[in-house]
Amino acid sequence: MEEYRVANRELAPMGFKKIDWAWHAMPVLRFLEEREKERLPLQGVTVACCLHLEAKTACLLQVLHRLGATVAAAGSNPLSTQDDVCAALASSGVHVFSHHGMSAAEYGENLRRCLAWNPQVLIDDGGDLVALIHEERRDLIPRLRGGCEETTTGIKRLKAMEAEGALQFPMLAVNDGLSKHLFDNRYGTGQSVWDAILRTTNLLVAGRVVVVVGYGWCGKGVAKRASGLGARVAVVEIDPHRALEAFMDGFEVLDLRQAAAVGDVFVTVTGNTQVLREEHFRLMKDGALLANAGHFDVEVCIPHLKALSVEVWDSRPQIRSYRMEDGRTLHLLGEGRLVNLAAGDGHPVEIMDLSFALQLLSALHVHQNDLTPGVHKVPEELDRRVARAKLDAMGLRLETLTPEQETYLASWRE
What we know:
Layout: H1 12-23, H2 27-36, E1 46-51, H3 55-66, E2 70-75, H4 83-91, E3 95-97, H5 104-115, E4 121-124, H6 128-136, E5 146-149, H7 152-163, E6 170-173, H8 178-201, E7 209-213, H9 217-228, E8 232-236, H10 240-248, E9 252-253, H11 256-262, E10 265-268, H12 278-281, E11 289-292, H13 302-308, E12 309-316, E13 319-324, E14 329-333, H14 339-342, H15 349-368, E15 374-376, H16 380-393, H17 403-410
Helix pairs in contact: 1-3, 1-4, 2-15, 3-15, 8-9, 8-15, 15-16
Binding site for NAD(+): 151-153, 185, 214-221, 237, 272, 293-295, 340, 347
Cofactor: NAD(+)
Pathway: Amino-acid biosynthesis; L-homocysteine biosynthesis; L-homocysteine from S-adenosyl-L-homocysteine: step 1/1
């Protein structure tokens, strides 16, 4: 088995500096490591991870390794992989397989190299490790304790597998934990998407019409931050309750054809395919910006863009421009991949401290308990433990109920 496959081991010093910067802003992860390190709870366990390989993720991978695990990691996105961080991970004992800009074929091979370490626990981002095991490495299933999934898209795939009776081992739906989706999806996505768009385009947001397609937790964050930057925000939804919520939050609600004609910036956050497609591209303004904040690069239909274009070029790093026959030009950010990671550094460190702390506790829970095959909720106590630790780290205190109040809430008599 290969120990690692990275672009350049000599980049490790810069990678270690990035990891150190992130580590000092992750008090919950540090607290959990300090509490667990004496007993080495993952001694003898192999953990396979498919995650965005950047500095914050590296902190989680190193904690898993220091708690005794053999860790094999593959990058979940070719543009979010940071080569210096991968080099640092390889130098610190993590078996990492990824490089920035890897092809789809290389991505698949890196997942296979990761699984060659015969894991007992998985940490997945998008469901590709789980799918590959069921399609090619079913021999691993008897030894798997289970795993964790941290994205909305991945959980949708897992639930589809469960509904078909295909999912053969337990997976914890980490994304559905309160410490994950209330903060990571809303505040993390909200800030990091606009950080990436602003640094990539160097254009003003105030006064522009921003179209947010999808008003789940991620969409709420993107819309709120766009509004805070002075944009006029329109939301596109298929769900009536979410559409009403967007309207009552102060945003215009349009269907996608209406929005296509008026939008200056489009951000897809749906987890679906071909969300922006030919019929919408034909209606868009000259100079419209197209960005995706959903997991896979299928929400903006790139084949349709190419078919409509007479010329394609890179205007700036991470901006590909498509000129239509009528002279209009549409600009795609980050190759249609997760814009906050493809064109930025992803979520703020303090947000990922919550998410990766929940991932760590969930991985320990999967390893230490016999769970039935299927999709499981993260135990509430684990979720609350992460939130309490974050409050403590920030110096914030909770109110406590008096005995009389507890009795009152537990009684049905007046």
